[in-house]
Amino acid sequence: MTDDDARTGPGDAVSNPVAGPMEGQAVIRLDAIGTAVFVAVTVLAAVGEGDAADLVNLVVSGVLFLGGCAAFAVGFARAAGRSRTEIIDLAGLFYLTGSAPKEPRRLLLGLWFAQIVVAAASVAVVQPPFGVMAPVWGIGLLTVWGARHGTFPPRPVEDRLGRRSAPQ
After folding, report:
1. Is 94 within the bounds of a domain?
2. Residue 79 lies in a domain
3. Is 34 inside any structural domain?
4. Neighbours of 64 (CB within 10 A)
């Protein structure tokens, strides 16, 4: 199977059943671990009483928030570098729309949506609701995956050289 066979059009990546392991598994695993810890700590904070549960909730939510911010910055910087030779669109970078095979997109978006649901639910049962910061983890890792492994169409050579054709 050639690279052309694995694409249906510019930016439309499809799963390749002949390919080896799914790309970006480390990012997906990291997202899953962060999500599992977030869910466990949110449940602990909801049923637990006292400062210890609140402190653990704050630390985990804060680490996920700051880690997500850092991941987002790294992913965005990498995408900016790739944009010199490829047409990077925001939906493909942040939401993997048309830039990723189904499986990693499904997993990463599913983990992010789980983080959002848990964070929203935690507002009603955990005070103070530190968990609202945690979903930044998911969007940060989506951005890293898209920047590293996303498939984007090549930028035309004349765009790479800084010359644009006149509007007609």
Report:
1. yes
2. yes
3. yes
4. 26
Considering the chain, what is the average pLDDT of its residues? 88
Q: How far is CA 131 from CA 31, 44, 111, in A?
A: 16, 12, 15
Cα separation values, 136 from 41, 46, 89, 97, 124, Å: 16, 21, 20, 19, 20
> Is the whole-model pTM more than 0.70?
yes
72 in Cβ contact with 147 (< 8 Å): no
Q: Is 7 helix (H, G, I), strand (E, B) or coil?
A: strand
pLDDT at 18: 36
Q: How many domains in the chain?
A: 1
pLDDT at 168 over 70: no
CA distance 134 to 48: 19
pLDDT at 29: 98
The parent domain of residue 79 ranges over 25-152
Residue 62 lies in a domain: yes
